[in-house]
Amino acid sequence: MCIMISAQLPSFFVVGPPRTGTSWIYRALQRHANLPAPTKETRFFDCHFHRGLRWYARHFPAIDPQRPTGEVAPTYFASSLACDAIAQTLPDAKLIFIFRDPLQRLVSLYRLKRAYGLLDCSFEQALAADPELLASASYATCLQNWQQAFPRRQMLITLYEDLRNSPQTYIDKLLNFLGLPASPLTDAELKYVHSSERLTEPRNFLLTHAATRMADWCKARNLDHIVATVRNSRMMSVLLSGGPPFPEVSRAARERVGELLQPEIEGLERMIDRDLSMWHLSGSRATMAGSARTEA
Q1: Chain segment 135-150, per-residue pLDDT in tens
Q2: Which regions of the chain does DSSP assign to beta strands (E)?
Q3: What topology does CATH give the domain 11-199+246-284?
Q4: pTM across the whole model
């Protein structure tokens, strides 16, 4: 690894899992760290590791040597490939985890994938068709994999409830972990980001599905600027809205999934020594709309 590329690589990762406020964290850290641009996620360590470090380094176009470099990458959490690749390439990297009620998070991720044309089936069918849904909810199992690969001192384990209840305290904790001074959040940084409450079914599933696949194609070729241009245009309102509201996930389905996830919740409780009883009742909740400040 040449010195120039090494200087551009991250010293920290926010590894998710998805739909736990990571888009908000990305926005809040932009003033303090060198992050990938113009898109948040590179998918390097779980999808594109074979493309090499030069490909990855091009996602960090402006490096300020006075700031740490990092990536907010929620898809890395459930990926053993990402865990192994980061441990091999950047063994001293700091890791930030944020955990949210797994059933709420699972429904939110399902809705996001439907909105982006990646799923066109019921919640129950999606659990069987898309392994990432349940894999990313295996909190204790996945966290144990990371703990086997990295020293505990390099990890900061947080809860989504802490972010929701006190964003300022939460971001100050992250900054302190990264060796940065506390900093007041701006009004813009306190705004909601990518809540699934605002998403609907796509008005044209095939069009949205094709656009999402084209975005992936562009990102794989370092054409993120094209994706960012479309994302910030009126085209997004055509691709990501206009369809019917999401159907409610049935109470029976929530209870079945809640029972399935219970061992992971209990395992995480033991691992982080925090009371997660607020999650134990999620299977019997009347609604899964999600009152999230941020979800992405």
Answers
A1: 999 999 999 999 999 9
A2: 12-14, 70-72, 94-99, 155-159
A3: Rossmann fold (3.40.50)
A4: 0.90
